[in-house]
Design goal:
Number of strands: 12
Structural class: alpha+beta
Order of helices and strands: HHHHEHEEHEHEEEEEEEEHH
Helix content: 40-55%
Largest sheet: 8 strands, antiparallel, barrel
Strand content: 25-35%
CATH topology of the largest domain: Lipocalin
Radius of gyration: 32 Å
Distance between the termini: 56 Å
CATH class of the largest domain: Mainly Beta
Strand order of the largest sheet: 4-5-6-7-8-10-11-12
Length: about 300
């Protein structure tokens, strides 16, 4: 076999005509089958695309295709709920489109509204219109919320109260104007002579966890500034917050009103608070355990879990 191959190489190998013809026929057959397959694939994709219920669904499925259509139509699109807004901005810029984002009613990263189009002035007009509409809705919501909180607070204060324990609603304008709007809640346990601390669970919109207030007995607490520490998690990525600027001060001006300053790596936020209920749905033991559970080990566990989830 080796000798036969060597002799054939010396004479010059040539593909027989019948194999050349067979190869060409198979190439033509493959091209025809592939063209039919690609056409069917494109038709199926077009049906899926047309069946998508909204612009934002199409933008999330195929940002470049969506933006090329915007470019072709010379239209302006308003998109709420984009999955990857930064990538969308970059793709729009690469295609020669202008895009800009603004806050929705709830504020925060997840409620950003993006406007994109070829004409910069048209995009800005739409952004300004949305911003004005959002501000009007926010004002209506805030007024309604203040009325509701005021009514609940008046009910709590009837009959007198000497215990700070209960559910409190806080106003932090510098937080809600930067991050997101919503209800900021503290649920505070009643002070006891057995503990130097008063405990509270908190929902700060961007953070949630436990506050430990330095109390040192119940005597003369009205009007006296109290320091506190807090630990918890960031509500977006779930990052454990157990160190850093996790502190603040609170002054109870009565059993039903307070003022203070919240400090964190996210910023420093002055606040005022009003008790809206005497109900306490947390225990001191539970909050103590939760507070101790926010530590370096928990931070590492959550960090690895987030990485594996990606």
């Amino acid at each position: 076999m080796k000798q036969i191959l060597a002799d054939a190489l010396l004479k010059g190998l040539q593909v027989p005509d019948n194999l050349n013809i067979l190869e060409q026929n198979l190439i033509r057959l493959y091209c025809a089958i592939d063209a039919e397959f690609q056409a069917a694939l494109a038709e199926a994709e077009e049906r899926k695309w047309n069946a998508l219920p909204s612009d934002v669904h199409r933008a999330n499925r195929d940002p470049e295709r969506f933006l090329r259509q915007v470019l072709s139509d010379n239209s302006v699109k308003v998109l709420r709920g984009l999955d990857h807004r930064a990538l969308f901005h970059q793709t729009a810029e690469r295609l020669g489109l202008f895009s800009h984002s603004t806050d929705g009613v709830r504020g925060g990263y997840n409620d950003r509204i993006l406007v994109v189009g070829r004409d910069r002035n048209q995009v800005w007009q739409e952004i300004n219109r949305i911003a004005a509409d959002v501000q009007a809705q926010v004002r209506v919501t805030q007024v309604a919320r203040r009325r509701q909180v005021g009514g609940m607070h008046r009910v709590v204060t009837q009959g007198g109260d000497a215990d700070v324990g209960g559910t409190w609603q806080l106003e932090m304008p510098e937080l809600t104007s930067v991050y997101q709007d919503g209800d900021i809640i503290w649920t505070i346990t009643s002070p006891t002579t057995e503990s130097p601390y008063v405990w509270a669970s908190f929902d700060l919109l961007i953070l949630e966890g436990v506050v430990r207030i330095d109390w040192y007995g119940q005597a003369e607490w009205i009007g006296h500034e109290k320091k506190f520490k807090w630990k918890g998690t960031e509500t977006g990525e779930g990052v454990i917050q157990y160190d850093g600027r996790n502190e603040g001060t609170v002054t109870f001006t009565s059993a039903n009103t307070c003022r203070g300053v919240w400090r964190s790596d996210y910023g420093t936020f002055p606040f005022i608070g009003h008790k809206v209920s005497r109900e306490i749905d947390v225990s001191v033991r539970k909050l103590e355990n939760e507070f101790d559970g926010y530590n370096e080990a928990a931070y590492e566990y959550a960090r690895v879990a987030r990485w594996r989830g990606r």
